[in-house]
Amino acid sequence: MPVADAHVDALWKVYEQGLDFRSSSLMQADYESLVKGSVAFQVFAVFVSTRRSAQQQLTDVLGSIGQYYAQFVHTGLVRPVLWRQDLTASMPSELEIDSPLAIGGLLSLEGAACLQGSIYVLNALAELGIRGIGLTWNGPNDLADGCMEARGGGLTAAGKRIVKEMESLQLWLDLAHLSDAGVRDVFATNLPHVMASHANARAVHDHPRNLPDDTILEIIRRDGWIGMTFEASFVHAGPATVDSVFRHVDHVLQLGGENHLGLGSDFDGLSTSVLGLSSAKDYPSFAERLRARYGEVIARKLLHDNLMSYFARQLPSHPVS
């Protein structure tokens, strides 16, 4: 079964460590692993060190985007998706790609300090292909507090301006690293396009990076999307297994998330892997476990169809020239 994954840090590995996206034993989501895992569609996160100045972060973000086009796109390994029409879907839940070896790819920005509060920088990055943004990583910046910031503040005035401009650009907002107060501030706006690209259920495992039930329910109500992640520390207090991941899946399904749930592995960004989910190459065996537990229809939704349906609703249409 085809897989659509909403979050990997492969681009960070390539940019920061000089690895080869085509094939690298030091990566979990290099091209070779994605193909072996039947990944048809991948969101590549643009992440840079938050320890650097905002100006240096912007330089690194631009360098990462340049490397994406040079190593991923212009080599023919990834087919860039910028507009709804680029999905070339024959059905809302199916993605047809130009070649069985060309992976559909989208760019998201993980941590937006590089914007320096400027809607013009935001517009420039959208022109370069960024289609989704997480305002923070774990700590604070000039837009909001991250989920690991003890202060627990919400959106700043600059953050609210950026969110308003994101609405006009039809960019999705990623809640994965945002503080609970920041999430509430986002929900107080009219922004229709929300997702949590790589986060699990806090009711199953109490971790600040996981989502409380009220957030999950509001994402479902807004026709958004949630990606289960394979960072073991977000899955279970001890060693995490595929069954541990399934407990999070079960919980979101019980909340009504059958059409709003999928996968955001965080491959190449994991500090500790789930046993049996150490790289994209493990997706086929994981798919079989999903099918055995939930049946063919739900397994296809979780592996691929729900995320593609979200993008069919959310991505902007190509401007008429």
Short description:
With 321 residues, this protein is an alpha/beta fold. 38% of the residues lie in helices and 13% in strands. The chain contains eleven helices and nine strands.
What's the arrangement of secondary structure elements?
Blueprint: E1 3-8, H1 10-17, H2 31-36, E2 39-46, H3 54-73, E3 78-80, E4 103-110, H4 119-127, E5 130-134, H5 157-169, E6 172-174, H6 180-187, E7 194-196, H7 213-221, E8 225-228, H8 232-235, H9 242-254, E9 261-263, H10 283-294, H11 296-314
Parallel strand pairs: 1-2, 2-4, 3-4, 4-5, 5-6, 6-7, 7-8, 8-9
Helix pairs in contact: 1-3, 4-5, 10-11
Structure report:
This protein is of the alpha/beta class and 321 residues long. It has one domain (3-314): TIM Barrel. It has 11 helices and 9 strands. It has helices at residues 10-17, 31-36, 54-73, 119-127, 157-169, 180-187, 213-221, 232-235, 242-254, 283-294, 296-314, and strands at residues 3-8, 39-46, 78-80, 103-110, 130-134, 172-174, 194-196, 225-228, 261-263. Strands 1, 2, 3, 4, 5, 6, 7, 8 and 9 form a 9-stranded parallel β-sheet that branches. The chain is globular, with a radius of gyration of 18 Å. It starts with a strand and ends in a 7-residue tail after the last helix. Residues 89-99 have low confidence and may be disordered.
